Amino acid sequence: MEDSAPRRSRAAFAGLVGVSQVLGLASVVLTGVWMGHFRGGFAWNGSKQEFNVHPLCMVLGLVFLHGDAILVYRVFHNEPKKNVKLLHGIIHLLALIMSIVGFVAVFDFHRAAKIPDMYSLHSWCGMTTLILFCLQWVMGLMFFLFPVASAWLRASYLPVHVFCGLALLVMSVGTSLLGITETLLFNIMPTYSKFTPEGVLANVLGILLVCFGLVLGHLMTREEYRRPPNPEEEALSVHFKTLTDGGSPTTP
């Protein structure tokens, strides 16, 4: 009976992780269907088809991959922390690359079509999110993956890093919703209110993105889903702190 609660918690965690992956993958697939079927497909020639690369890359990079990068610390409980850090950094790097490709695509399309840049709320939020995401990745690289800061400074910055990761996920989902609405109003505004298939699909995509963000937020904020402390890793961390800072061997 005493083990039933932990077992239920693990089962709930596994179920929620599965739900998050279904939601995230469904969001990417629906974005591809929307841009591929309703908006004419993909290209890299300055046409509207090049613009279609933008939403697909942003949903794949700043939402799905970004969310999964955050989630690895919850999923891989028993893996060495350095391996999880490396995976976290690699997935974030892939998300960053995809996001940059998406930004280049939309600016290239605007230049070819002589459309002004950076005038809408969506573009302001998107650029802010990308810049902060780049800073977050660089700070994570310097503080945790290849640390150049002291152990005390890393321990102090860690809560900020965790908060910023979740905040950037919220910003990415919010910016995606703005982009969905903007694209619909630009392309099907006269028929949007008639529940056209494209409009319904885009609305469902928005709901999926919100649900993905909510499930990720729940998984990342519940204390029982945290990575359990590893005594060996804590001992190594304390030893490193003592050697580098000259401090007493106490856990930060």
Question: Main traits of this protein?
Answer:
8 helices, 252 residues, Four Helix Bundle (Hemerythrin (Met), subunit A), mainly alpha, single chain
What is the element layout, followed by pairings?
Blueprint: H1 4-38, H2 48-51, H3 53-75, H4 81-113, H5 121-145, H6 151-192, H7 197-221, H8 231-245
Describe this structure in words.
It is a single chain. This protein has 252 residues and is an all-alpha fold. The protein has a single domain, classed as Four Helix Bundle (Hemerythrin (Met), subunit A) (Up-down Bundle), CATH 1.20.120. The protein is built from 8 helices and no strands. α3 packs parallel to α7 (197-221) and α6 runs antiparallel to α7 (197-221). The chain starts with a helix and ends in a 7-residue tail after the last helix. The model is unreliable at 235-252 (pLDDT under 50).
